[in-house]
Design a protein that fits this description.
- The structure is a single chain.
- The protein is an alpha+beta fold.
- It is built from 21 helices and 25 strands.
- It has a 6-stranded antiparallel sheet, with helices on both faces.
- Helix 5 (about 185-200) crosses helix 6 (about 200-210) and helix 12 (about 335-345) runs antiparallel to helix 21 (about 615-630).
- The protein is elongated and about 115 Å long.
């Protein structure tokens, strides 16, 4: 049988198929395939000639660390070709040498995929066995004994979160990173003094510092430049404390819409789970709110390069990989900066957990949302689940009006009443003489409504709640709770639901949307990110006469009832409903304080956990908000 020869140019050398009736030896091809599989499995040094395994292991350890390689995939490409006798004799003492093209793909942490072509040289040993002969060029064709690979990584500037006008709510602002250098701390002094100044856990900090190298910067806290200035003198003299100046994507103040906008901080194991495939432990990433939920969009895509450099001089020889960084994309919200400031100011002096949320009634756009007291990332305005108390009477009275009751119909308001064997009473044990529903609603009479529970069909209240959009699935871009009004189990359950107790639960945002529905007449889903999740109608328009009646009732609350303090001068009147919601098992029960309402096209809700009475305690918060936002409509 005739012998076939194939010639392929490899570098400056001519390569030929090894002699034999069937072309290159199968053993050489098998060795190349085995090497590709072993490298892909992270065991390349086990599939090379034993005389080069030590070099292979060292090279791979070095480049894996330097390039931060997470995973490598290698496959053979093209035909195996063999060198002629003279070339093989020079390289392998006359024994056969073949070359196999390989396609290499590295998953680089924080950068993505680096792909290139290389060559695996397969040599026959004295016993006729074939193995890959490892050299630096096996890893990459530009790598030699005298060179190494260096990686750089560049992060683009984080994109801002915008208000409804397209103005930035977050931007890069100066911060100071406070940390410790473990080798310079005095354990008996450093940790306790830092704890007293910064309020950190000294035990946890000590554990992290003792686990770190002596010269490593161990992060303690990152402070705005102004905040650091206030404690600078107390920190600088503590042994082992180190500070670095930096910038970070921040809102105007530490409390400004914090639970919605979120914060950016050093990556943690938890925050990295949702930060995208290119985030690294060394990055600053979103840890809460929109900064976390839209981390990839805001952060953009890292860029970087890999260079071949001289080992001795560090001089760059050649760039072998380049990836351009792509900036993040801004995220537009519906927040109104002026209204947000008004909301922040309204709750700033609160001592108990408080939330205030304001929406544009005609569109459902969320204009402001503040949570306090102090700095908190818990978004109780969106996700808090509370009995709404008497603020829910807006919905229950709507059901009664649809059932035939009139605003001027006379109702009784005793201090207490018994429904189905359960005693219901008014706040402060007050009573009113028999009079119109308008007066009972304005003065927030519980007994007048629970006595009407038996006049409603079993599903009437839940059906009216559905018409107000309660229980709708919201798509805000952040977790939010729209409320729940279950079908009543019995008459007592129905009576409790009439006054927002029992199993009725809503969030402050949910109650703000109830007020917005009365204002505009059209139930809607709330909107926070107009370009991502636009709002929509959440049902049919309320009948005109029903809307008129509800607005009349809510205006009476302000003119003559429990929210009289909100009767502000001006062309646009305020409409409101107070609420005092019982919770817990204490006797007397503890209460949350509520206030909902609207003025012009702005609807709002306030809740104070364990806050006492709606008019007495939530009222002043709503009043300050309305006073500071009087020019914003």
């Amino acid at each position: 049988m005739a012998v076939r020869w194939t010639f392929v140019v490899v570098g400056a050398l001519a390569a030929a198929a090894c002699a034999g009736p069937d072309g290159p030896p199968k053993e050489a091809s098998d060795a190349a395939q085995a090497f590709a599989r072993a490298w892909s499995a992270g065991k390349a040094s086990t599939a090379v000639d034993s005389r080069t395994s030590k070099v292979a292991k060292a090279t791979l350890a070095e480049v894996t660390t330097e390039l931060v390689i997470r995973r490598t995939t290698v496959r053979t490409r093209g035909e195996l070709t063999c060198l002629d006798g003279d070339q093989a004799d020079q390289l392998n003492d006359g024994r056969r040498v073949c070359r196999q093209g390989i396609a290499v793909s590295h998953d680089l942490a924080g950068l993505g995929t680096w792909r290139y072509a290389s060559t695996a040289e397969v040599r026959e040993d004295s016993e006729g066995r074939w193995k890959v002969w490892w050299a630096p060029a096996t890893f990459h064709p530009q790598l030699t004994d005298a060179t190494k690979l260096d990686r750089t990584r560049e992060l683009p500037e984080r994109a801002p979160i915008l208000d409804q006008q397209g103005e930035p709510l977050t931007q890069e602002l100066p911060v100071v990173r406070v940390g410790v250098e473990p080798g310079k701390v005095r354990p008996e002094v450093t940790y306790s003094r830092l704890a007293s100044v910064l309020g950190i856990d000294p035990g946890k900090l000590r554990s992290r510092a003792e686990a770190a190298p002596p010269t490593q910067f161990v992060d303690v806290i990152t402070l705005r430049e102004g905040a650091y200035g206030e404690i600078r003198s107390a920190v600088e003299g503590i042994p082992g404390v180190v500070t670095h100046k930096d910038t970070m994507s921040l809102a105007p103040t530490s409390t400004f819409a914090r639970a919605v906008l979120g914060v950016v901080g050093p990556a943690t194991a938890e925050s990295l789970k949702d930060a995208g495939p290119l985030a690294m432990e060394s990055d600053e990433i979103g840890t809460s709110g929109l900064q976390k939920a839209y981390q990839s969009q805001l952060a953009g895509t890292p860029g970087g390069s890999i260079d071949v450099v001289d080992r001795k001089s560090g001089t760059k020889v050649r760039e072998v990989f380049r990836l351009a960084a792509r900036p993040g994309k801004p995220l537009k919200t519906t927040l109104d900066t002026s209204l947000q400031e008004a909301a922040e100011n309204a709750i700033e002096s609160q001592e108990k957990p408080t939330a205030l949320v304001a929406v544009r009634a005609s569109t459902g756009e969320i204009l402001a949302t503040a949570n306090g007291p102090g700095v908190t990332s818990y978004n109780r305005a969106f996700v808090g689940k509370y009995p709404p108390g008497s603020t829910f009477k807006v919905v229950s009275v709507a059901a009664l009006l649809e059932g035939g009751l009139q605003v001027d119909d006379r109702v009784s308001c005793p201090a207490e009443t018994n429904i189905g064997g359960k005693r219901f009473k008014n706040a402060y044990n007050t009573s009113l003489p028999d009079g119109p529903l308008l007066t009972a609603f304005a003065r927030s009479c519980n007994t007048a409504l629970v006595q009407r529970a038996e006049t409603l069909e079993g599903s009437a209240l839940a059906a009216m709640a559905d018409r107000f959009g309660i229980g709708e699935t919201w798509k805000l871009g952040l977790p939010a709770y729209s409320g729940s009004v279950p079908e009543p189990q019995d008459l007592v359950d129905r009576a409790a639901s009439m006054i927002g107790q029992g199993r009725v639960l809503l969030s402050p945002l949910g109650m703000a949307m109830v007020a917005a529905t009365v204002d505009s007449g059209q139930p809607r889903t709330p909107v926070l990110l107009p370009d991502v999740a636009p709002g929509q109608k959440a049902g049919e328009v309320l009948p005109a006469d029903l809307g008129d009646d509800l607005r009349t009732l809510m205006r009476a609350v302000v003119e003559t009832g429990s929210a009289k303090a909100l009767d502000l001068p001006g062309a646009q009147p305020v409409f409101a409903k107070t609420g005092t919601a019982e919770y817990g098992s204490e006797d007397p029960p503890r209460t949350h304080a509520w206030m909902i309402g609207f003025r012009g096209d702005i609807a709002f809700a306030v809740v104070i956990e364990d806050g006492g009475g709606g008019g007495r305690d939530a009222g002043p918060v709503a009043l300050r908000f309305l006073q500071e936002s009087r020019f914003v409509q």
